[in-house]
Structure prediction request, 632 residues.
Amino acid sequence: MKAVWKILVVDDEEVMCESLAAWLREDGYDVDTSSSGRQAVERARASDYAIYFIDLKMPGGMDGIETMMEIRKLHPDAPVIIITAYATVDTAITAMKEGAQEYIVKPCNPEEISLVVARIIKVKNLQLENTILRKRLTGQYDFHDIITKNPRMLSILQLVQDVAGLRSTVLVRGESGTGKELIARAVHYSGDRADKPFISVSCAALAETLLESELFGYEKGAFTGASTRTRGKFELADGGTIFLDEIGDISPKLQADLLRVLQERRFYRLGGSEEVKVDVRVIAATNKDLAEEVSQGRFRDDLYYRLNVIEIRIPPIRERREDVPLLARHLVQRLSPELNKDIQDISEGAMKVLLEYEWPGNVRELENAIERAIVTCRGQVLTEDDFGFLTRSMQERKAWSVPANMTLQDLERQAVSAALQRTGGNVKEAASSLGIDRSTMYEKIKKYEIQR
Amino acid sequence: MSGLCLASLGEVEEPVLRTIAECVEERIGLPVVRRIQLPVPLEGYDRARGQMSSVTMLKLLLEQAPSGISRILGVTESDLFIPMLTFVFGQAQLKGRAAVVSTARLRQEYYGMQPDGIALLGRARKEAMHELGHTFGLIHCPDTRCAMSLSINLPQVDSKLEWYCEGCWPVLQERLEEVR
Ligand SMILES: [Zn+2]
Ligand SMILES: [Zn+2]
Prediction:
């Protein structure tokens, strides 16, 4: 995944702050500015930044070095870049001794600043990947499949980072196949519960009683076949996160039970009389419009408000088409070796097909399509033909949609030649199927030089 | 009236303006509905550096933008800077209305080479597309051939295309719908 890194620029000169911030924002960073050391420390208290640009000379009590030291108290590893003028290079060197990562003499070459930022961000990304990799070894965790440059998705990833450290309940909404569990895992593995369990339960897959015992566990003899005391998913998730997928499908009784767990953080095992206390973060997901379910009386409103403390709505692929090439190439890279194939790329034509397709099944469908294409592909590049199954289904689905860039003349030419093909070259029949007379038909055939 | 206003800031060669206008109309489909000439804002001139502040340029463009236009693109021969950096090829308001492009460092004679008028026009188009892309919210693109990739020297400008990659273009198109 590509994280959106936050940068703080601290300088008493507004134009300096704002112009550097603007320049960094164009690079995709989320930039805040502060006009004094004090304000900067406050900001650092509220959130951690990937890079701190701090001007060495600032009036009003706190200079750059002091500001840096205060921030370091909050975030010991905070990468600080001290900005200095030529006259004060010596002090900047002192700053380096105090732990500044870099110093930059202003004005500096864009190349230099790009390099410095890239170097720090690279380390940050590696650190993030390492944490993730470690998580992947312990849990099966795949942050890497969240690949996006869609602004809405990027802000979701930012939100994931922001809420990861909280205990609040999160409701993830999105059509099926959009990767709701991936987002839930991202929340879990980005927070301080990362080394605790992440337990996933699909509420739609099980019958009510089974689900109940699955969630809360049972005592020996609670029902026929309950031969030993068994811990439920809530207990297994203790200290960590429970992910309740398809929450919109649970029965009224379970809704009530769940509400109680959310309120009191404790419950009874089935057939048990001893209360079980748990510290579990709940992340629920649904492809239904829960608010609508509530207004229809099918879902408890009190439970809904409990679950919906933080809502994350994942857009379907058709609302983030710019991600299709990224995702597709990523999936090829990941799936090709898994399937023992050496596929290097996707042809332009094939990519066009992928971009035009509606993806009702979202990322999951895209993954399946890529997998299917890889399996049947004979070369090293996936071509349009390898995605024939998609084009066929597209033609069936929207036989009537007109491709972009098509002129009325193109359309007419195709209609005329298709009619002729259908009728085996019979002009009279073709003309009547198009609702025109024979002479007009001949005119068109001539005009478009159509072979009969 | 919605569309682009192309503003020259100080003297700008007509072929440069024309090629940018054509490029914007043909490639992005954004009509150039106005052409205006503005003087270089002297308050933005930094005598010590011998350069113009791009921030001042953007401010002037916003003040002078005719009402009803959706974007204003300034073109100048002046060398632009922001306080932190030795120079910028251009600057834009991310998701905003104004952008400015400087040809000063797109001329290879700046670096002691023989002038090349054709190359200059190509570079001006690329940087114009780049800065306009920012006004539509596009950020720098890792694809070095995409117009939205960050170029901080001439070879980088030359190695990219005057066109957006398959990832950036749909985003731009979507935003264009909103201003059309
Ligand atoms: Zn840029
Ligand atoms: Zn791009």
Q: What stands out?
A: Residues 54 and 80 of chain B are 5 Å apart (CA to CA). The mean pLDDT of chain B is 93. Chain B touches chain A at residues 49, 53-55, 81-88, 91-94, 134, 137, 139-140, 150, 152-153, 166-168, 170-171 (CB under 8 Å). The pocket of zinc ion (ligand 2) is lined by residues B 141, 143, 146, 148, 164-165, 167-168 (CB under 6 Å).
